[in-house]
Amino acid sequence: MYPFIRLFKDMYLARRAPKMGLLDTHISYHRCMPWDLDMWMELNNGRTLTIYDLGRIPMAERMGLIDVLKQERWGLTIAGSVVRYRRRVRLLDKVRTMSRVVGWDQRFVYIEQSMWKGDECTSHAVYRSAVTDRNGIVTTDRIIAAMKVTDPAPELPEWIKGWIDAEAARPWPPMQD
Questions:
Q1: DSSP alpha helix (H) spans, 3-128
Q2: Which helix (H) or strand (E) holds 135?
């Protein structure tokens, strides 16, 4: 089940935290609970992605995106992700999650997140996020204008551009046999 209680707690904290700019980093703290574990008694890889949700959604609140989504009647979705897992997170370990917008192109906003146990990075994810309306994807120029951001899009790092190129070459739909 989705951790709604944790989300409500994190949104409560985000609403009381200082507003942040579109390119600032949101930091959140989480503890690995028994229901987050897999059969090897470590943080389940799927639950890691859910904990990353608990970083992205409050980040969107702090930067004012949630208000814009409500006002415009837009939705928010993930259109792709790539994750690197490197260190185990075990029962009751406290982790620090860092979430930030890296940049955007015409259709997608790219978000980078990392999870840290002390000074050691346990995982790292990059998401291709989209804002949607009843007609499909809302272009990022409309989103940026609605958020009243005047800064140009930063140059995406080469490794993210490489991921974008790899995704463009990936066949869709995938083979069925």
A1: 4-16, 45-62, 65-72
A2: none
Per the DSSP assignment, residues forming a β-bridge with 73 are: none
Where exactly are the structural domains of the chain? 4-169
CA–CA separation, 170 and 55 (whole Å)? 28
Q: Which residue in the block uniquely carries the two structure tokens 């551009």?
A: 161
* Token duo for residue 136: 């499909």
What CATH code would you report for 4-169? 3.10.129.10
Residues 142 and 135: their CA atoms lie apart, in Å, by 14
For residue 154, the one-letter residue type is P
pLDDT one-digit tens code per residue, 70-120: 999 999 999 999 999 999 999 999 999 999 999 999 999 999 999 999 999
| 8 Å CB contact between 120 and 99 | no
> What is the rounded distance in angstroms from the CA atom of residue 69 to the CA atom of residue 5?
22
> How far apart (Å, rounded) are the C-alpha atoms in residues 6 and 52?
12
Residue 76 near residue 129, CB atoms below 8 Å = yes
| Phi, psi angle pair for 72, to nearest 5° | -90, -10
Tokens standing for residue 118: 């002390």
Q: What's at 139, amino acid-wise?
A: T
54, 6, 70, 77: CA torsion to nearest 10 = 40
The pTM score is: 0.95
